[in-house]
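Our preliminary data section would be incomplete without showing what the modeling component actually yields. Below, a chain of 202 amino acids is followed by its predicted structure, encoded as tokens that our downstream tools consume directly.
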Amino acid sequence: MIQRAHTNADGDVRNDSIYILTSQCHYFIWLNEDQSVSLLTKTLDEEAEWWDITASPQEDLVDLQQHWLMLLTCINVAELYLHSIEVRDVQQILQHPTILDLDDEHDGLWDGSKCYSFRQTYVDDEGDRIHARIEIMTPDEAYYFYTLENQSYVARHYQPPNVFGRQELSYLNTIQWEASERYFERFKQFMSQNFKIDLGTN
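Predicted structure:
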């Protein structure tokens, strides 16, 4: 989890920081005012306390180094894919009159091998806000979900065939990210050709 520099509710200034949870430890890394880096860690025990490992020998930091490389890989994948699907494209599609007329629970659009379904934003019976999304069912009955959970990017999830429940796309699984790109690009072409929605193509 990456947190940018900010001022919290108490008025305290917080510098850039990174939190990493591994199968063995918690790590907290932050940037000091003099641009030096500090490292803290603690075990997974509930009563464990943070301790400074900034000056620890390199061989004691192998676990952190391995997960740091994993973090850099995730950041590279996020920069490559996360903003390639435009929020405005998803918003435009969801607001098209044909889509608004569909029954969220029963209606979808078929292109011959894939089914496209749509969910508008609503509040469920427990008072939770359910965000608008586009769902693509693939020929093997897997699902890709494209959700408007925030204003800066389209969140993506995946559901394998014959499995109930969405899961986040792992930033270490570039195959799934590329597949989600291809399915959405074909979906945009389908919408442009059949509903005359002016969407950019990659």
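The chain has two domains: 2-81, 87-195. The longest strand covers residues 25-31. Preliminary results of this kind motivate Aim 1 of the renewal.
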